[in-house]
Amino acid sequence: MTRRRKRGASPPRHGGGVPKTPPARTNQAQQEATGAVGASDLPAGAGSLLAAYDALRNPDADHHNGHHGDHRGDQQTAEVIADQAAPVNALDLLAFDADDNGNAEAMRLLYGERFIYNPAFGWLGWTGTHWQADADAVVTLAAIETLKRRRHAAVDAQREDIVKAAVPNDHRIRACATNFRAYVTEVDATTFDSDPDLLNCHNGVLNLRTGALAQHCPRQRFTYCLPVEYDLAADMSAWHNFIHQATGGDEAVTHYIQECVQ
Q1: Number of domains in the chain
Q2: Are 205 and 173 in the same domain?
Q3: If you average pLDDT over residues 128-134, what whole number do you get?
Q4: Domain co-membership, 151 together with 238
Q5: Which is higher by pLDDT, 12 or 209?
Q6: Which pLDDT belongs to residue 77?
Q7: Which strands, in side-by-side order, build the sheet including 115-118?
Q8: d(CA 32, CA 43)
Q9: What pLDDT shows up at residue 262?
Q10: Are residues 239 and 129 in the same domain?
Q11: Residue 102 falls within a domain, yes or no?
Q12: What burial class does residue 70 get, using C-beta atoms within 10 Å of its C-beta: 0-12 exposed, 13-18 middle, 19+ buried?
């Protein structure tokens, strides 16, 4: 005879029930090698700069999280910083000590010709044509990029000391940028825009005495760039007619005005 179970009674238990699925273990080495390092992987209170950087490099993720702002300009800035790093061997980033200064030396290897610090101007960044002031945020992005590259190289080389020293948290990022400043400081502000015979045009640096046009390079110390190109074959008839009318055709005065304009 089959016994009926009373309504509301609990069903019988069998040998401990269904086992729960154990939580998946995080493969830290794989996580580090792929660069999947976020705020949850860093010490408490760290990671805000890294999170901002990752948001710039991955705007789609920020969009999926409900943030619909237009970050395209900032994303391009982050991508340019990554592209402007000097082409060095990843192992060269491991040649320095596993500390904040070692991180700064790695940053100098990657970005030593891209930034200058001057007490009068502050941080300046090389744009490809001139040195632009107010580059603090770009320097921070470069420090983050340096730490991430160095950490990836350390993971591949199994350098646990550098893996720990290059964690891109707020403290390491700021320390890297601060120490990097000592390597790229140029104290004398008079070296900028100092040669009256040189004019920085969009397509090169024009020597007003010789007419020679030189290519832009970071060794030049211009903080401006004219938005026009120098064209040796340009039509100057309008200028010549104006000078001729203004001087009444006096060639000596015309020559003098031309020298003053140059």
Answers
A1: 2
A2: no
A3: 94
A4: no
A5: 209
A6: 60
A7: 115-118, 122-126, 131-133
A8: 15
A9: 59
A10: no
A11: yes
A12: exposed
Q: Which two tokens stand for residue 195?
A: 């040669």
Closest CA to 124 of 94, 115, 214: 115
Same domain as 121, residue 204: no
User: Which tokens sit at 177?
Assistant: 């940028």
pTM value is 0.65
What's the rounded Cα separation, in Å, for the pair 152 and 38? 14
Count H helices, E strands: the chain? 10, 6
Q: Tokens 């004219």 sit at which residue?
A: 226
Task: State residue 257's pLDDT score.
Answer: 79
Q: What is the pLDDT of residue 83?
A: 82
Contact 212, 197 (CB under 8 A): no
Q: Can you give the residue range of the structural domain that contains 222?
A: 198-261
Query: What pLDDT is attached to residue 26?
Result: 40
Please answer whether residues 98 and 162 qualify as being in contact, where contact means their C-beta atoms are separated by less than 8 angstroms.
Answer: yes
Tell whether 161 and 232 lie within a shared domain: no
* pLDDT for 62 beyond 90: no
**Residue 12: strand, helix, or coil:** coil
Name 73's Cβ contacts closer than 8 Å, sequence gap at least 6: none
150 and 32 Cβ atoms separated by less than 8 Å: no
The terminus-to-terminus CA distance of the chain in angstroms comes to: 117
Q: Tell me the pLDDT tens digit for each residue of 224-241.
A: 999 999 988 888 788 788
**Range list of H helices, 93-228:** 100-111, 136-156, 160-165, 170-184
| Mean pLDDT score, 106-119 | 96
Extended beta strands in 69-135, E state:
115-118, 122-126, 131-133
SS3 216: coil
Residue in this structure with the two tokens 């994303």, named with its chain if needed: 75
Question: In this structure, are 229 and 135 located in the same domain?
Answer: no
The tens digit of pLDDT for each residue in 8-46 reads 444 444 444 434 444 443 444 334 333 333 333 333 333
